[in-house]
Amino acid sequence: MSEQMKMTDPAPSWQDVLIELRKIIRATDLQSKRVVKSCGLTIPQVMVLRAIKQLGDVTVKRISDAVSLSQATVTTIMNRLEERQLVERIRSNTDRRIVNARLTVSGDQVLETVPPLLHEAFIHRFESLESLQQQHIFSSLQQVAGMMDAESLDAAPLLDIAAPTRERTDK
Amino acid sequence: MSEQMKMTDPAPSWQDVLIELRKIIRATDLQSKRVVKSCGLTIPQVMVLRAIKQLGDVTVKRISDAVSLSQATVTTIMNRLEERQLVERIRSNTDRRIVNARLTVSGDQVLETVPPLLHEAFIHRFESLESLQQQHIFSSLQQVAGMMDAESLDAAPLLDIAAPTRERTDK
DNA sequence: TAATAATAGTTTGAGTTCTAAATATTAGAA
DNA sequence: TTCTAATATTTAGAACTCAAACTATTATTA
């Protein structure tokens, strides 16, 4: 760990940050295409399926919170999943506004066949890093996500976000 | 500000990483909508415009390299920009396969009015971090982008794995 | 010269993603 | 009861995004 890096590394501008974010977004997209080829589902579709499996019968709203997508997006994804009969929609009896999502048997089976959502090489690389290093990276991602978060952006201009905020209301 | 990483933080799994990436992608998307409202252009459109301004008359291919988007995507973005007469397409005389993009006067003007592509609060936060901290974050993003990069994934240098070789019975 | 390959861009088709508007339902108040 | 507000979800509309197929053009070769 050298601290000599400074002269070759001037403080990065947010422009540089933007470029790296673009690369990450693109790579994620490309991986999604790979996953589609391998199992017929996109990454968001898998994430929704997994959320349903994990949470049991859930509303669209809870799913959208869990996977960080808007309600509308979850609905369109659900439409496709329902077409393929991987999930069912079940209206609540007590409150008929509510729609609960439930995995079908084949939905559950399909989940078994899904490859990792990040390239295996990525996972391998990531997991072969030292734990401390992993935490650094993860914490940086959390910080970036936190700094970009719309709600906190409106709410707290000068929040101390240096510390990854856990313990929110999450589930 | 050193003690916040409690030891209740076990090594993060790649699943956790994926969630953070989602948040970042979503936040970027939301910011794009904000930018649209403010200046009528999306972030990718601005990025293409800037690349053209920066590089002078450029081919679609060079733009797509510069902004990390596929050629096809750049084409569709160019279509919209051309409709609004922010860019022109100019076929090369020497090689008529080649199309050069050029900013129009109004394209150049519009660029002046574009707000920052990351939320100002984000920029402010990021820039108020210590330089070392900025570098940490930036370098983490670079690492993630690098680990995810498709080409390097194929090359996969540090793979001496007992990788689960999945057998492919079909397709 | 004609056939073939290589290159540059565009179109097509499928999917994701958002906001805003629309729909349906429930709960509370006049 | 009926009106209104709040809640849960869906639809409509617009962009982005990619791979793959397609068009047009240039270069190479027989």
TrEMBL record, chains A, B:
Residues 14-146 form the HTH marR-type domain. Keywords: DNA-binding. It comes from the Bacteria. GO terms for biological process: response to stress. InterPro entries: HTH_MarR-typ, MarR/SlyA-like, WH-like_DNA-bd_sf, WH_DNA-bd_sf. SMART domains: HTH_MARR (SM00347). It holds the Pfam family MarR. GO terms for molecular function: DNA binding; DNA-binding transcription factor activity. PANTHER family: MARR FAMILY REGULATORY PROTEIN (PTHR33164:SF89), TRANSCRIPTIONAL REGULATOR, MARR FAMILY (PTHR33164). This is DNA-binding transcriptional regulator, MarR family. It comes from Amphritea atlantica.
